[in-house]
Amino acid sequence: MKITSIEEYLDEYIKIWPFSGNVGVIRHGNIIFKHSYGMACHEYRIQNTIDTCFTLGSISKQFTAFVVMLLNEQGKIDIYKPINDYLPKELMIDNRITAHNLMSHTSGLHQFYNWEEDFFQIYDRGTFNRLDFFQKYINRPLGFEPGAKFEYNNANYNMLAWAIENICNKSFEHVLHEMIFLPLEMNNTVLDDGHNIVKNRAFPYQIDRNDIVRCQYYNEKFSIGAGAVMSNFHDLCKWYRCLKDRKLLSNETYDKFFTENLAGYCYGINRDNIYGRTRFSHGGDHLGVMTYVQYFFEDDICVIILSNLECGNNYHIGNAITEIFFNGSTEKPKRFEKIQLGKEELSKYEGIYLENKIEIQQVGEGVEFMRFNGEVHHLLYPVSDNKFAKVWVDQDKPYTITEDEDGSYEFFGYKKSK
């Protein structure tokens, strides 16, 4: 079934997945669609409105890269010289790495956002100490030679933020406000440090089994440069207009900012072609954060998705909206089709795949995927003999649990140990 309007698509979508947040579209400076869904604060039953401020996640990287380019124009940083020239002595990294490498995710810095590391939901819950964080998780052997390939890595943008602070002799928060938010009158946009009061903020939630719960705590200070900016729909419209009209930076610098590097990544933003048009886009995904922006400068269209509930799929929603715009219709949203597996068939997948991080247990007609030492429980249902889909997340593709030749089972690349 084809759907021809944004409102109709979203009405069908929330029948399947309980989206919470804001969806908005602007064209030629006019808001042509805006709608708020769900709760900003479940505890006090405060609904999301178009003025609600959401954590942007990795959309924040655009602002970090933009500040670097502003400083480049001012002659305060050369993006092709070693970033060590602009860092404090205690934060030195491989001398071949430049700001260009960091902004384009081609530095080769150690990747600490993975299953094996104890950073995510262990170290990031503690008190932030910049030097300790740097020494434990960033100042490690390179994963590859600088410039050799693309690997998305938050550490790149942590380093940029610290370089900015060192160059300006001011906090990163102050620099963002002074160089971007204030001149663009983005009065509802701030860097969340975990302590400041953010007016009209949406709190992060997720679905644990079948219940909406508050997300686990994590210290936003570890996201400096890479995330932690909070904003709302109206301020992001101002940001889009800045980029569209090429404000604050020269045309020459904008050309660099929007130049495609490896894997279609520019500086803090992706570039690709879709429906015969150039699209700039970026998403943000974290605990209770699902965001997505798309900029079509040639058509003067901006699509903004902001959500505070880890449910559904921000990219599917945003891409369906652009398909309606440029193709006239999109497919009706739907789940993966469920199949029936017997208890004996399901039981063979039960077990621990990575201690305290990945565990599967049989629950009813499906299985439960447990994470973070059993603090988070995702219900999965079978869609084939060895494929399972999340009940509350609109996945691109289902999870696969494979059986190896020796009869052992593997999930996320880890063999079942117990």
TrEMBL record:
InterPro entries in the record: AmpC-like (IPR050491), Beta-lactam-related (IPR001466), Beta-lactam/transpept-like (IPR012338)
Domain Beta-lactamase-related intervals: 22-312
Protein name: CubicO group peptidase, beta-lactamase class C family
Organism: Clostridium frigidicarnis
